[in-house]
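hey so u asked for the seq, here:
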Amino acid sequence: MLKIAYDPIYAHPLPPGHRFPMLKYELIPAQLLHEGTITEVNLFSPTELDEATILFTHDKIYWQELRDLPLPPKEQRRIGFPLSAQLVEREIRIAKGTVDGCHYAFEHGIAFNVAGGTHHAGSNWGEGFCMLNDQAIAANYLLNKDLANSILIIDLDVHQGNGTAQIFEQESRVFTFSMHGDKNFPFHKEPSDLDLSLDDGIGDEAYLALLKSTLPRLIDKCQPDFIFYLSGVDILASDKLGKLSVSREGCKERDRFVLEQCKGHGIPVQVSMGGGYSPNLKDIVEAHCNTFRVANQLYF
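ran it, structure tokens below
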């Protein structure tokens, strides 16, 4: 059964200027329910993540300043919006949804989080609307609980996963792979184990060729027993921040290829949705929904 983490708090309204991107967190599950791809039984609502699991990944002082809200204004500006208790709770629940998703992935092969992909959060900083790094937290949870020994993180958001790279720079059991726009945020990029930097305007053919020539070799090299996939749809040509030229069908083919590789090798995968900033909300929702549709076809 396809299990998907979703909670209404995911769509918590942000300050003016940031609310539009949040609408997708309500619309993705609503569309999947409407079309019959999923039913309510596929959705689960995560609780708050325990502090001990957060501290597997994030610095104690940073976490306490985030939790108790005295995070300095300069650090809040780096995150991109003023903090509130509800926004911190939102981040904690997103991270718990990804951790819970790992257990569902072991059971069913794959699991999703409607939100997540908060890959700009480092061990002691938040950045780019990311405060806690959900997939890094979940990867460290698996390592600390002896549930995995070799993990591959596939980050195909248009923005480099700088926080994830920093968190695992000294961790040989986690291989970080980021394929992203070269001339895009973050402008200081932490080195992943493998970074593939893309020129502006790259389209379906070149994008998919590069992915298809890289990922199978990585899986063979790393021999992971768990995979995290960040499936951002800000690679779309319609995206106002992405600078790439991948079509919606090309994005869908990307997801199909990644998930076929996971399924074909029998490796459980947890999927977090990442970014998407097309001016037309329908483009964002449809591209994200395609990731769920592909998974449903391949696994169930």
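The beta strands are 3-5, 43-44, 110-113, 151-155, 174-181, 194-198, 226-230, 269-272. The longest helix spans residues 85-108.
lmk if thats what u needed
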